[in-house]
Each structure stands twice: as C-alpha cells, then as structure tokens.
Amino acid sequence: xxxxxxxxxxxxxxxxxxxxxxxxxxxxxxxxxxxxxxxxxxxxxxxxxxxxxxxxxxxxxxxxxxxxxxxxxxxxxxxxxxxxxxxxxxxxxxxxxxxxxxxxxxxxxxxxxxxxxxxxxxxxxxxxxxxxxxxxxxxxxxxxxxxxxxxxxxxxxxxxxxxxxxxxxxxxxxxxxxxxxxxxxxxxxxxxxxxxxxxxxxxxxxx
Length: 207
Description:
Elements (H helix, E strand, L loop, with lengths): L7 H13 L1 H4 L10 E6 L4 H19 L2 E6 H11 L3 H8 L4 H11 L2 H16 L7 E6 L1 H4 L5 H8 L8 E12 L3 E6 L6 E2 L4 E2 L6
Parallel strand pairs: 1-4, 1-7, 2-3, 3-4
Antiparallel strand pairs: 4-5, 5-6
Helix pairs in contact: 1-3, 7-9
C-alpha cells in the first residue's frame, strides 16, 4: 500500500493489534525466518509516528503486560562515541572534513558488526527480565543515523543477537518488493536503496 492510501490512525490500530497478538509474540508462521518486522512510513510522518510509537508502547505495557525494549540507534551511536572518547573530535571534524571522508570515518567508528551489534547484545542482556516471549524490541532512530549507519547492515548483524523475541524496526522511508529488484529498503525515500529480504512488513501481517 502506498503512502497516499494510508492513514496513520489506521496504521496505529493495526500495528498495536499485531504486536499484542499471540501469533506475533510466539513468532508463529515465520518458516524459520528471523522474527524481524518493519513499519515503514513517509518521512514527513516522523513526529506523528514518534507519538504513535510511544502510545503503542504504553498500551502494550499497561494493557497487555508486554515488555517493550527500545533501542534508539542515534542515542546508541552517541553513547558508543562518548565511551571511546571521540565524540568531541567527531563534532569538530564535521565542519572541517570532506563530506565523503566524514561519512567513511563515522561508518568505521560505528561498524554494525564490530560496534552496533555487540552494544545491542549488551543492552538486551542487561535489560532482560521475565519470559522473553512477552518482550518486544523496538529499533528506532534509523533516520537520524542515515547514511552513517545503514539499516540493512544493522539488521543483518542483529540476526544472531536478537533471538527469542520479535523486533520491529521503525523505518522512515519505503520497504517494498518488486519482481526486478526484490525487497528493498529506501531510507528517507532517497534514490539509493538497499536489498534486504528477511524482514516482514508489519502492515501485511494479520492481527
């Protein structure tokens, strides 16, 4: 369904009903695929989606007893750079370095395999409590870290980290399938796109 045909209020109702369903929480019907889901939305909806996400998380916690763990990639990136003592250097470099060089530097500092995935694993281990099948992970901050951190590489590296619980990535842009190109993520609806086929569009899931 394209953005022109969508209504954010209907999206909110559908996403909430899917997330609270036993089928989703038990990760049924995945045919051995990873339990990764994507809610893709027009970038112009960003502020409204943030409020929507907060409401859904609050309802899941209070009405359904479902634990929601949110990992914001932007906050995580800053935390990692601060831990390594390079955050101030990064801020100074942004105004003096060539844009491509700056992007390459940050991509090296925030490599999903070497830095992001281990940090997510550590966060999940520290926050894990209760039965994992009543826990849902929200992956947010995706638009804020683009193009320094690409969603498809994060998802690929989280496949062995996020286990035993479903994850929903809140993706500003388009996630679509075409016969010629397969499944593609297009962050912020820019021209560049990335192939990733293992996540499921949550709008296409039954509640």
